[in-house]
Amino acid sequence: MKILILGVNGFIGNKLVKKIMQSTGWEVYGIDLSCSKLSHSIDNPRFHFIEGDITIHKEWVDYHVKKCDVIIPLVAIATPAHYIKEPLQVFELGFEENLRIVRLCVKYGKRILFPSTSEVYGMNSDPEFSEDTSNFVFGPVRKQRWIYACAKQLLDRVIWAYGTEGKLDFTIFRPFNWIGPKLDDIDAAKEGSSRVVTQFIINIVMNEPIRLVDGGMQKRCFTYIEDGIDCLMKIIENKKGLCRGEIFNIGNPHNECSMRDLAEILLALYRNHSGSEAYSVSASEIIEVSSDEYYGEGYQDISTRKPSIKKAQKLLGWVPLVGLESALEKTLDFFIEESRTKGLLCA
Ligand code: UGA
């Protein structure tokens, strides 16, 4: 099988290639702006990488959609701070470029695995979100946070429509707060614009305050990247064609945690970090900030976001295995090492 991954150097892309190289005989064609996270696979003869930009290297993309069997377009800006600061960039890259890819898959009759997002459920208050019955609840237009979710929602609907007209073989998947090594760029976290787990870790490592937005009672279910990748592998395998035309939540409902608890757990893990004499004490304190102050007026939050994973369990036989503390510890270990290399670690 030949797989095309656009945005192959990203958090999900690099881990997926690694797994494919380790456990299958499949070939992967990949494009990204850099190969900084791909050292594990770059020399493998079954991995074909080019450094490039999908908005510029359109002929390469067209040719490889035609050549490959399964297309996985992972290019998008996925950090809430950017939804408010750069909403048009989020739309142009996340929506317009991906629409082009969807249409190429239709044109060449290729199977697409499309990454939707847990964000599409928005401020829905269901105790668990179901792929097939939960409503999508977004705020007003002036709340620019929703541009990412809206763009993903519309693409989900376009893909669905092509599917129901018999023009596209697709599976949509919705990651729920996947975490792990290489989650976000450490420089983005230094500027204060990365996703929460990386943000808190870098704050702790740099002895800066951990800033809890609006009190920190909002909850997320954190999913370890390797669990997510295992589910994706089953979707790519697509045994008995069961994934065709389906949408899957991929998350860990047992790893629910408030942002305040997350901050406490990370601080405790950091203080107990094995062999960490030199940095066993972090002076980070937990402070509260308003969302207006932290993100700007275009922000609106989600208070709970828990996936129902019954479908993935039933059709794919998949369940997540990594618990919250273990997932956070593995992520923390990686960023401590990365911070040490970059000279950020405060003694
Ligand atoms: C994320 C992103 O939109 C996407 O990566 C993705 O689609 C989706 O969720 C997902 O991974 O499932 P969100 O969970 O809101 O959205 O993003 P985070 O930046 O990780 O924020 C989580 C919570 O922490 C929010 O309530 C935020 O206000 C809070 N936060 C964030 C803080 O309290 N302090 C910080 O320093 C940063």
From TrEMBL:
<dbReference type="Pfam" id="PF01370">
    <property type="entry name" value="Epimerase"/>
</dbReference>
<dbReference type="InterPro" id="IPR001509">
    <property type="entry name" value="Epimerase_deHydtase"/>
</dbReference>
<feature type="domain" description="NAD-dependent epimerase/dehydratase">
    <location>
        <begin position="3"/>
        <end position="251"/>
    </location>
</feature>
<dbReference type="InterPro" id="IPR036291">
    <property type="entry name" value="NAD(P)-bd_dom_sf"/>
</dbReference>
<protein>
    <submittedName>
        <fullName>NAD-dependent epimerase/dehydratase</fullName>
    </submittedName>
</protein>
<dbReference type="InterPro" id="IPR050177">
    <property type="entry name" value="Lipid_A_modif_metabolic_enz"/>
</dbReference>
